[in-house]
Amino acid sequence: MNIKLHQKKIFFASDFHLGAPDDASSKIREDKIIKWLDSIQNEAAAIFLVGDIFDFWFEYDKVIPKGFIRFLGKIAQLRERDIPIFFFNGNHDLWMDDYFTKELGIPVFDHPIEVLVENKKFLIGHGDGLGPGDRQYKVLKKIFTNPVCQWFFKWLHPDLGIRLAQKWSKSSRITSLQNNENDFKGEDEWIWAYCKQVEKNQHFDFYIFGHRHLPLDLPVGNSSRYLNLGEWVNQFTYGVFDGEEFEIKKFEN
């Protein structure tokens, strides 16, 4: 994929976790996300939404989760302005299928992708399941992404299936906080380790990921950077690339 800026910028955000921890706080966050999208729409050459946009999402054949209508309406409006938007599955919204692609013209990726922007090479993905460690989650991800398991799950009534999944999502987040998973781990940062391993075989100028809920800017080799986009439950951080420099910023409005 090759993107030309034409004197504009590319914006990146992840981990909105819309729906968490409850409807009231999620709607406040949704309004803030829409204000951010409003603020960037005139200078956006493209927008990358890099996973865990929803705290839970499962597409049945004829049903999608209730809610998020303001957000969905806003990204539909941006697409009508011909602003490219790219979605990535995260570990909380693994089960996106073709709804966004068919209804909104937004491609959805379930793996890191290579993007060329003004001769700068990017590797972009959510980040879950990459690098060493986290074996328990990697096993769970294989189960959750197994087509047979998904086929069985979709035959649960949506009221039951979505309620069960939301309960699991909330317990997963609580466990993460109890284990201090959002603390900086130094050399044990597994996505950073993954980036350094990739760089040994193929050069990228920028490695852009989410998932860790930490805004990070770390060196990879001699001339590359790993940037984590942080999250929007507490930090409201995002990335912006102007053709030369990549910055992690905080939306203050």
Describe the structure.
α1 (23-40) runs parallel beside α2 (69-80). The strands form two sheets. The protein has a six-stranded mixed sheet with strand order 1-6-7-8-10-9, with helices on one face. Strands 5-4-3-2-11-12 form a six-stranded mixed sheet, with helices on one face. The two termini are 32 Å apart. The longest helix has 21 residues, at 158-178. It contains seven helices and twelve strands. The chain has 253 residues and is of the alpha/beta class. A hairpin with a 2-residue loop joins β6 (113-117) and β7. The chain has a single domain (2-250), classed as 4-Layer Sandwich (Purple Acid Phosphatase, chain A, domain 2), CATH 3.60.21.10.
Pick out its properties.
alpha/beta, six-stranded mixed beta sheet, globular
Short description:
The protein has 253 residues and is of the alpha/beta class. It contains seven helices and twelve strands. Helix 1 runs parallel beside helix 2.
Number of domains: 1
Rg (C-alpha, Å): 18 Å
CATH fourth-tier homologous superfamily:
Metallo-dependent phosphatases
How many strand units?
12
Q: Characterize the largest beta sheet: strand count, sense, and whether it forms a barrel.
A: 6 strands, mixed
Shape, per Cα inertia axes:
globular
Instruction: Quickly give the CATH architecture.
Output: 4-Layer Sandwich
Widest beta sheet: strand line-up: 1-6-7-8-10-9
Structural class: alpha/beta
**Poorly predicted residue ranges:** none
Order of helices and strands: EEHEHEHEEEHHHHEEEEE
Instruction: Estimate percent helicity.
Output: 25-40%
Averaging pLDDT over every residue, what do you get?
A: 87
**Straight-line distance between termini:** 32 Å
Which percent range describes the beta-strand content?
15-25%
CATH-assigned fold name: Purple Acid Phosphatase, chain A, domain 2
Put simply, the count of helices is 7
